[in-house]
Amino acid sequence: MDKFLEMQTFASVVDAGSFVRAAESLDMSKAAVSRYVADLEERLGVRLLHRTTRKLSLTEEGRAFHVRCKALLGDLEEAESEITASSAQASGLVKINVPVTFGIMHLAPLWSDFMAANPRVTLDVTLSDRVVDLVEEGYDLAVRIGSLPNSSLISMKLASTRMVLCASPAYLKKHGHPKHPADIAEHTVLAYSLLAMGDHWELEGPQGKVKVVVHPVMRTNSGDTCRAAALKHQGIILQPSFLVEEDLRSGTLVEFMPQYRSTEFGIYAVYPSRQYVSAKVRLLIEFLAKALGNATWSAN
Hints:
This protein is α/β, with parallel strands linked by helices. Helices cover 42% and strands 25% of the residues. It has three domains: 3-84, Arc Repressor Mutant, subunit A (Orthogonal Bundle), CATH 1.10.10.10; 92-160 and 265-293, D-Maltodextrin-Binding Protein, domain 2 (3-Layer(aba) Sandwich); 162-262, D-Maltodextrin-Binding Protein, domain 2 (3-Layer(aba) Sandwich), CATH 3.40.190.290. The protein has helices at 3-16, 19-26, 30-44, 60-84, 100-117, 134-137, 169-175, 223-231, 241-250, 279-293; strands spanning 49-51, 56-58, 92-98, 121-127, 141-145, 154-167, 189-192, 200-205, 208-213, 216-220, 237-240, 254-255, 264-271. Strands 3, 4, 5, 6, 11, 12 and 13 form a seven-stranded mixed beta sheet that branches. A two-stranded antiparallel sheet has the order 1-2. It has a two-stranded parallel ribbon with strand order 7-10. The protein is elongated and about 75 Å long.
């Protein structure tokens, strides 16, 4: 009876989403994978997986056991890495989830530097603005922007970004510069639909917080789309400094009412909670913190 192999096989089935794909990743037959999972369920006396012809799903017991298996397997990988890594080089696959725009603009140029410094590490980078479940979907690390909810996940702050009110000089010349947040309600607004405060924009000014209800002529779940329309003189946007910094520097967009500041967000590395973090993940977090910590758009 090989408890480790049973746990490894079970975790691979869950992460892969099927017995066939797990068999391929483990270089086993499908029958062997099925047998190990069945033996594990029999030994524990509980059903861990619901099996249908179309999909697999975890039972409540299976979900809890999967979390513990991933933690134990991660700890074992870390222990082996510490004992056998005579070269002190991290190795293995790191599965990462990052936001789309931030991932393209500021993370994509960094991956090659990390890989060059760590040639035995393989990266699997997924770009998505959806908040993934790191444990359920098998991610080692995610980069998230915003306020983090209370959870069992561990996080490390990498940088900050602030939301900037801006528009093109041509738009402001034609329609006038807002002098007070209330004036924004009379302007053309291009809104980011995933903004938590929606159409009720909140700003911090000299006399405290001010709220204004905006009436967008366009809503989109893409900050890039808001920016592109603003560059074509179509209206006012509220977008993060990491997205519009170069436009502000070149003058193609102008920040107005700088005395009224909007939300500041942290940019975090988030990873599953466990006692030990593998060398490859730890090195990647340290690399990102160093690369992003002094970013000129960071609102520290």
